[in-house]
Batch of 2 targets.
Target 1
Amino acid sequence: MSARAWKTIAIIGFGEAGGILGAELAKRGIAVRAYDLLLDDPAARDAMRAKAKAAQVAAAAAHAAAARGADLVISAVTAASAVDVAKAVAPHLTRGQIYLDINSVSPEAKRASARMVEGAGADYVEAAVMAAVPPKRLKVPMLLGGPRAAAVSAALNAMGFDTSVAAGRVGVASAIKMCRSVMIKGLEALTIECLMGARRYGAEKEVLASLAGTFPSMGWDEDLPNYLISRVAAHGRRRAAEMREVAATLRDGGIEPRMASATAALHDWFVDALAKYGVSEGAGGFNWQKAIDVVLEHKSGASSRIGSF
């Protein structure tokens, strides 16, 4: 399989990840078309069309219009929509097409999508996106899985992607990402709870110094707290949805997702709290102390001040 054989790529879901991938592929002279639910929303349609036009991507009228005849179909939707999108797209796929599922969902959800896509005669390849897309864009590392993963990985890398093969069967790549997220998103949640307590009791400096002493290479006394908490502030809703998929992954394996479920709840709570108390990013960028102070002050009733971070 050669990347030169891919003349048309369809992207289902033109949000942050889909938008970036679509724009990067269009720059390489590939015909890209995209469909997003917001194209059906009168309030958002014009902005979404403008985004597609700026990226030199054709806005499609429906799943079918985007996917039909495309050499590669990339699904980049929300976790909650991933299987439904595969179900909607599958009837419009035919033999020879490749469906690349980059959504952050459980292995069983990936397998369910694979069954529908392969039932239509197309090839299904799962992808686990292992870092944030915006900084690295097309070079964001991805793990691929499925019978055609090796061939698709080679073709994608020839186009500028950074993919590697996790396994020749569907589910392993997703399991790697889901299990990793227990630690990564869990660390974010632990940081919020830890530093909220430290800030409340005036022990922040000592707690961070102790963490830096125990884990000297992590940056607890530098930018790490700000980075971890800012990720939740900016993307907590999406990360909470991913953690619910992590919980499903663990349950499917007979493991009670105690930490994963708690992490999802804390991410959702923190985003809700910031929105409820009117917190917005200030001119100086994100500041975790100011963000947490606003939440603490409102929870204690000590102030009605609306802050920025």
Target 2
Amino acid sequence: MSESLVISGGMLAGHAGGQPLDLMIVDGVIAEIGPQGSLAGGGQVVDATDALVMPGFVDIQVHFRTPGGEDSEDIASGAAGAALGGVTACVMMPNTIPTIDNPTLVKEVLAVGRTSHCDIYTSAAITQARAGERLVDFDSLYAAGVRIFTDDGTVVDDAGLMREALLASARLPGCVISQHAEESGMVDGGVINEGVVSARLGLKGRPREAEAVIVDRDIQLAAETNGRYHVLHMSTSLAADLVREAKASGIRVTAEVTPQHLILTEEDVERLGTSGKMNPPLRTDTDVEALRACIFDGTVDAIATDHAPHSRESKDVSLSAAPPGMLGVETMASVIWTEFVAAGLMTLDRFVALLSTQPANVAGLVSQGQQLEVGKTANIAVFDPQDEWTPDQSSLQSKSANNPWIGKRLVGRVRHTICRGQLVVADRALL
């Protein structure tokens, strides 16, 4: 039995009235909500004065590198950073060494995750070893708890395999087929976005059209099969237009976008160096504007980080040789708050929807992203909207340093995090 907690004096997201409230947590569940001071003596006090109390954030695309890449990140370090960022649930990607493509590995990863600072879920590959040749055993992986299937890092180029995968999702409740959407032949050897910067640097580019080719094909397959299709880290206006049209037609498609694709462009690559390299790459101003529109018109369902750690040694090379990927799980909420909410562009309700409620719905995480009500599981972030801070390498938990937000002045920071009713971060420090 866990110690009771009283979150005291915060403004509860989604609750009318505009007055500070207290929230009591008993045995991992919200037991009572009352006026400020009314629950005094009910448990350990968690001070939420001048802060917002909201559902814990949910990041449905992280790379915690377990198994096989623990030198750059592991579940413990990744989950610690997530918790400090108010994230109470993460979905790991399967492009590990070996690939997460069988129930044994799924169970091993989930077992490690049960000792971490936030809830850890894992996706599994669509094809065995992500080789694009033979499908995984969807039924056994589904029985092991997998709901998201993806060959993330590579695309399933074979339309026949993708069709069979989507058929599997149509018969398995809550199953989602997620795609890294870049047609392989079009981006082979590409380093950054194909455009003015790649030309200036003399680098082969990854064309925007490569994303649209795959998204268009997969939407057609989803329509035919009634499968569930999710676009990972959507990066272009071309793909956004296709997703918007598909949703209007009733096709079962969802999409996510990363903070970096909402803020940074190909012009930032020269400033950031290899920390500015990712796949799909940072795009154009036009794409950023289009994606920003998507987070308000419903085309985008979730903001996810694609948190992709790489060791200093692997990134300390040329742009062409460096692996793609950026960090982001610990800073996600602060970056989005700074760029959108503090700037007056986004409401608190939309912030909660994009970072918590909707990503939880995409991944089928029923105990996450819930309205803060009596009887609900206590997965909670207490967020101070006025706390100004500047991330630096020494203050962040990741084993890696490829973070594009180092040195950026941010407004808003998580003060406390409660996961499954347990206080895991108190006053911005891990417990």
